[in-house]
Amino acid sequence: MVNAEGEDNVVNAEGKDNMVNAEGEDNVVNAEGKDNMVNAEGEDNVVNAEGENNMVNAEGEDNVVNAEGEDNVVNAEGEDNVVNAEGEDNVLNAEGEDNVLNTEREDNMVNAEGEDNVVNAEGEDNMVNAEGEDNVVNAEGEDNVVNAEGEDNVVNAEGEDNVVNAEGEDNMVNSEGEDNMVNAEGEDNVVNAEGEDNVVNAEGEDNVVNAEGEDNVVNAEGEDNMVNSEGEDNMVNAEGEDNVVNAEGEDNVVNAEGEDNVVNAEGEDNMVNAEGEDNMVNAEGEDNVVNAEGEDNMW
């Protein structure tokens, strides 16, 4: 047990019933991925290394981040936004509207204002619109419509250099997954069917969502928050601080206020701190520090 306020927080090297909490709520971090919870305010947020029932939420809503791509949710405001690495029912929305981004091209929607805009790599019922008009972009050339204001919008049947822009900025949509961008305000937002350099942002900040787990970012306010399906460099933060949650136990950070608190599933360089001091807890017994007030206490 390690707790700055004296609550029953546990860190276990084998991943059974591990809890890490700044305020003493039942937050669990498990190395084997069963029933792991990490929560800044004590709600039932779970982070799981194997992808079962993972939740990460700054405000305690049921947001899920899953390493294997099943029922993953990432939401800064607690709406039911889903980001899935395998392309099943993925939703990414900065304002909580039902916008969907799917890596396998089924029922994909991207909208800055929450209208039902769809972008589909196979050309079925694709819509891209900054203001909610029924603009369609089709990769195979059937019923393609692109333009909200008549600026330089391009649609290509073979997926090369397709552009969809409501205000005329260089937004691109590509059926083959190369350099796809969809943006309501003209910022460089990218949506890619193959998982390379995908960006989806309601306000135009550099938020990335990737199906293969490389450099994935999901942020409601545009800060550099990352969520990765393969456990590389995953960050989930409601306020944009550098909090990291990793499915494979490398460089995992969980912090309620954005301080550099680290929790690692494999026991390397783990830190747990209620007030942001440099407290460390290690599953293998190397360099473990536990301090409620920031003094150099070691265990």
TrEMBL record:
Domain of life per record: Eukaryota
Start and end residues of each stretch annotated as Disordered: 1-23, 248-299
Protein's name according to its UniProt entry: Uncharacterized protein
